[in-house]
Design brief:
This protein has helices at about 1-35, 70-80, 95-105, 110-115, 180-185, 190, 195-230, 240-255, 260-265, 275-340, 355-375; strands at about 50-60, 60-65, 85-90, 120-125, 130-140, 150-160, 165-170. A seven-stranded mixed sheet has the order 2-1-3-7-6-5-4, with helices on both faces. It is rod-shaped. β1 (about 50-60) and β2 form a beta hairpin. The longest helix has about 70 residues, at about 275-340. It is an alpha+beta fold and about 375 residues long.
Length: about 375
């Protein structure tokens, strides 16, 4: 009787646990139904004011119809071990993310990173859940580069992947995952490989954006280089070069730290990342290496441009000093002569001669003319 009673108690506890899970599922379902699936192609927050951007179920590489209830979809995925759910969020609050974190059994440390953002690119494993952080970048268009122009804007994408789910949390006003979703839906064979295929597509999309931004930044660097080596390059504002170096540093902070996480995804064994997907991450790693090398070359090029500009400024200052010195020598002759004849002495050369004054002016003018010609011939004037 005691064993039977214990079994009944265990059964009751399981029922209570199942009811709680269903309750959490229904809370998430109400949130999704209250705010229908809206792709966040707009750079700002979801037009409906919710952190939930889109929630879709994929089975056999095909997106299921939107009429299926979310609770039934998640329950079916978990019971049949077939397909997965992709939940997209944009800048969720702790309250908005609490039920989702409990539902999918997400680690509190990863949840904290996903909510508060401002993290370095990384990959962490919490049990059977993989948590990845990517820095997104966007080129800020500007009519003319100035010392205060914003060139690169950054954001973040956090990705949770498990055996039956993908949760993406996006921070920032750019980096919409709509094109990624459309590209995967157009390739059902790749989508059948599960949540790891989504993680690869996001990583590939982020790295491709790096290369696009790098090409745009290169155009700014080329423009600054042309201005510096122009005829009046010494007049170029050095603040433009410093601004480009600061923006390049922002881009470097997004690109370079991602090398190790991508390397881990391409070589380190993970339960949720199949070996055939790791080969795709090696391709992403190659593109990332190219981006990092270009950023390093840009940094060296900007250093060279800055040094060349400083050298031009030094040369221009030396030329100005030579001109000032030459004119000072020319002006010194009449100054000295006038200083001598300005003294109140009675016995001075040609003081009372009728032509003494014109002769004095003629001698001074002749000496100044000879000095001017000599300085012009030597390139000082």
């Amino acid at each position: 009787m005691s064993m039977a009673g214990n079994l009944r108690k265990v059964g009751d506890l399981r029922k209570v646990s199942d009811l709680r899970k269903v309750g959490r599922l229904r809370r998430v379902a109400r949130l999704a139904r209250r705010h229908p699936r809206v792709d966040l192609s707009h750079p700002a927050r979801s037009p409906l004011g919710s952190a939930v951007v889109k929630c879709v179920t994929y089975r056999d590489g095909v997106r299921e119809q939107s009429g299926r209830d979310l609770v039934d979809a998640v329950d079916r995925v978990r019971k049949s071990d077939d397909g997965f759910v992709w939940l997209g969020l944009h800048e969720p609050t702790e309250l908005e993310f609490a039920d989702i974190a409990e539902l999918f059994d997400l680690h509190p440390l990863a949840v904290e990173d996903a909510v508060h953002a401002h993290q370095r690119p990384k990959v962490e494993r919490y049990g059977q859940t993989l948590f990845a952080v990517f820095k997104t970048v966007c080129y800020v268009e500007h009519a003319e580069l100035t010392a205060t122009s914003e060139v690169v804007d950054t954001g973040e994408i956090m990705v949770f992947i498990g055996r039956e789910f993908v949760i993406t949390v996006r921070h920032g006003r750019h980096g919409s995952l709509g094109p990624v979703r459309e590209g995967l839906e157009a390739d059902p064979e790749q989508l059948t490989k599960g949540p790891a295929a989504v993680l690869h597509a996001i990583a590939d999309h982020v790295v491709d954006d790096y290369l696009t931004v790098i090409d745009a930044v290169q155009a700014d660097i080329d423009q600054v280089e042309a201005d510096v080596f122009a005829e009046d390059g010494a007049r170029t504002d050095p603040g433009r070069i410093y601004q480009l170096k600061r923006e390049l540093l922002e881009l470097k902070r997004a690109v370079v730290p991602l090398a190790r996480p991508i390397e881990e995804l391409s070589g380190r064994p993970f339960q949720v990342v199949a070996p055939e997907i790791q080969a795709y991450f090696r391709d992403v790693s190659d593109h990332l290496l190219r981006a990092a090398e270009q950023i390093a070359s840009f940094d060296e090029l900007l250093n060279s441009i800055l040094q060349a500009h400083l050298a031009q400024v030094t040369v221009a200052q030396n030329e100005d000093m030579r001109k000032i010195t030459a004119w000072a020598a020319v002006v010194a002759v009449p100054t000295m002569g006038c200083g001598v004849y300005g003294m109140n002495f009675d016995h001075m050369p040609e003081l009372h001669w009728q032509f003494g004054y014109p002769l004095f002016l003629g001698v001074i003018a002749s000496i100044c003319f000879v000095l001017h010609r000599a300085f012009r011939r030597n390139g000082w004037l």
